[in-house]
Amino acid sequence: MKICEVHNRAPLLPALLSVWEASVRATHLFLSDTEVKAIKKYVPQAMQGVAHLIVAENDRGEPIAFMGTEHERLEMFFLSPAERGKGLGRQLLQYGIEHYGIREVTVNEQNPHAVGFYRHMGFATYQRTDRDEEGSPYPLLYMRLP
User: How many CB atoms lie within 10 A of CB 1?
Assistant: First the structure.
């Protein structure tokens, strides 16, 4: 596996969008199909706009996970469902903590695997909202490293 920051993002967007969608469909069970499709339209723009986009590739050079970070915040973190439970998420997040100073993350409370993962990695909740940033009824947990 190889982890590196991607500067020329456009060629990777279709593959990363596939990772995003597979990850969201496996973990964001509270979202309807219509909601996933609506959000998907904005994901390429978000991937292009984040300060640092870090991609993990398998031995064949295919993206299997990615994260976006900016100002010591983890802005996005998606892992191919086939790679879950193998330590890749831990490796990728640790890379971000060490190389990009990640200290904070916002996570959907209704994604218990993600919440548990971040807690396992040392993050603690310091704030909770009843709605997400778009005003939808999806509670968010704001977490940070001590």
Answer: 14
Please work out, in degrees rounded to the nearest 5, the angle formed at the alpha carbon of residue 96 by the alpha carbons of 117 and 115: 15
Contact 75, 68 (CB under 8 A): yes
pLDDT tens digit sequence for 42-63 = 999 999 999 999 999 999 999 9
**Identity at 145, one-letter amino acid code:** L
Which 3-state string (H, E, C) describes 21-81? HHHHHHHCCCCCHHHHHHHHCCHHHHHHHCCEEEEEECCCCCEEEEEEEECCEEEEEEECH
pLDDT digits (tens, 9 = 90+) for 18-34: 999 999 999 999 999 99
Residue 101, pLDDT > 90, answer yes
State the Cα–Cα distance between residues 18 and 80, nearest whole angstrom: 9
Residue by residue, DSSP assigns 75-113 as EEEEE-GGGTTTTHHHHHHHHHHHHH---EEEEETT-HH
Write down the residue that tokens 């890749």 correspond to.
88
Contact predicate 38/28, CB 8 Å: no
